[in-house]
Amino acid sequence: MTYSVQVKVMPLKELLDPQGKAVMGGLQNLGIRSVNDVRIGKNIYLQIEAGSAEEAKKIAEEAGQKLLANPVMEYFEISVN
Amino acid sequence: MTYSVQVKVMPLKELLDPQGKAVMGGLQNLGIRSVNDVRIGKNIYLQIEAGSAEEAKKIAEEAGQKLLANPVMEYFEISVN
Q1: What is the pLDDT of residues A40-66, one digit of tens each?
Q2: Beta-carbon pairs below 8 A across chains A and B
Q3: CB B77 within 8 A of CB B7
Q4: SS (HEC) of B7-75
């Protein structure tokens, strides 16, 4: 069966997010002033062929650790649909 | 009150996603062969000061239309926590 797995890769909370800061500046310039903070990461959808949701999650975790996220700067979260 | 709003920005389904294709190739090279498709977009967290969740969502929608997503190539989804 094919599982749709969502992997969110975000910059670590301890780190500055210059892309987010730039977008916040852009929003202010557009007159949207009620946004206090912006953090930007990646949203990755994987279509995984697996025997169970558990197995699909394990494969996504392996993918996250080996390729999708850089653990020095990012963390990732997985959800299986 | 401050609402945490998540904006997912993804490439339109009709379009190719070269970044996703490249990541899929990388996964195959790493021996992760059960992934059939990869699509990569952005995951954006906004901290929005608003009177209600409704209002926060409206502000996020305005931000999505004006700055966060390029409607020619991307669509976006909003969820308020």
Answers
A1: 999 999 999 999 999 999 999 999 999
A2: 101
A3: yes
A4: EEEEECCCCCCHHHHHHHHHHHHCCCCCEEEEEEEEEEEEEEECCCHHHHHHHHHHHHHHHHCCCCCEE
Helix (H, G, I), strand (E, B) or coil at A13: coil
Residues of A in contact with B47 (CB under 8 A): 35-38
The residue segments making up the domain with residue B26 are 2-80
How far does CA A3 lie from the centroid of its chain?
18
Whole-number pLDDT of residue B28: 96
How confident is residue A67, by pLDDT bands cut at 50, 70 and 90? very high
Which of A45, A48, A50 is the closest to B39 by Cβ?
Answer: A45
Structurally, chain B folds into a number of domains equal to: 1
**CATH code for position A6:** 3.30.1280.10
Tell me the per-residue pLDDT of B7-50, one tens digit each, with 9 for 90 and over: 999 999 999 999 999 999 999 999 999 999 999 999 999 999 99
CB–CB contact B63 A39 (8 Å): no
